[in-house]
Amino acid sequence: MFKGFLLGIIVTIGTLIVIGYVSLQFGLIPANADAQPTALEQWAANTSLTATLQREAPRGPSPVQLTDQTLIDGIHLYAQHCAICHGTAQGDASASPIARGEYPAPPQLATDGVEDDPPSYTFWKLKHGIRWTAMPSWKGTLSIRQMWVLALFLKHMNKLPPAAEKAWQQVKNGTEPSNPANSGTPPQQANTPPSSGYATSGSE
Ligand code: HEC
């Protein structure tokens, strides 16, 4: 009786492994990014992320104090590193070509923000990134302080004091026409022929 039960479990697990392997080998598991995540993928990803945050996010308040200057520093960091994927104060309308092509799509934080999350959760996401998405880990690029500064800005981005609000409204995500790289006319030095030194360096 028990032997039969055990055999049943082993056969079931073996069959599942074979089905999984065959599905991968025959390309039956979608590998494309031009799609919406399925409900199952979203559920699995959210459940795993929420459980990880509850276990690993730092306890207690932010070690960085909230001031107008902190918020402005956060906005500058955001403009430099984040707007390309998470947009500007214009929200969804400001989504860059990179943001539009990602799977899953990065939230445009002005319209779909994280003001409800504790800053420690946002800090964890910045430090470690989010697996199976385009959200990078920033721990090799930003300091601990900079990551808290960003987390505080994102927590308060819908109720900024006037000076910070002004800085936020001026953030561009690199795709606006005011950026010379996108104005249609290539910047001057792009038309300059390579110097002779450059042209001959190919023979090395
Ligand atoms: C290359 C694109 C990319 C860049 C650059 C990027 N992110 Fe993300 N980020 C993502 C994606 C994609 C997600 C969505 C992950 C998911 O679906 O769980 C995300 C998720 C997040 C979240 C969680 C949003 C939520 O609703 O829970 C926060 C907060 C965040 N990013 C902040 C930042 C900050 C701050 C920066 C800059 C330091 C940054 N990201 C840079 C792609 C990016």
Outline the structure in words.
With 204 residues, the chain is mostly helical. Helix content is 51%, strand content 0%. The protein contains 10 helices and no strands. Helix 3 (68-81) packs across helix 7 and helix 6 (119-128) crosses helix 7. The protein starts with a helix and ends with a helix. Mean pLDDT is 88; it is low at 177-204. The structure holds heme C (HEC). Heme C binds next to helix 3, helix 4, helix 6 and helix 7.
List keywords for this structure.
mainly alpha; Cytochrome Bc1 Complex, Chain D, domain 2; 51% helix; binds heme C; single chain; 10 helices; 204 residues
> Total number of helical segments?
10
Helix content: 40-55%
**Coarse structural class:** mainly alpha
- The CATH architecture of the domain at 71-174 would be Orthogonal Bundle
The CATH topology of the domain at 71-174 is Cytochrome Bc1 Complex, Chain D, domain 2
Assign the CATH class of the domain at 71-174.
Answer: Mainly Alpha
Strand content: under 5%
**Low-confidence segments, ≥5 residues, pLDDT <50?**
177-204
Q: For the CA atoms, what is the radius of gyration?
A: 24 Å
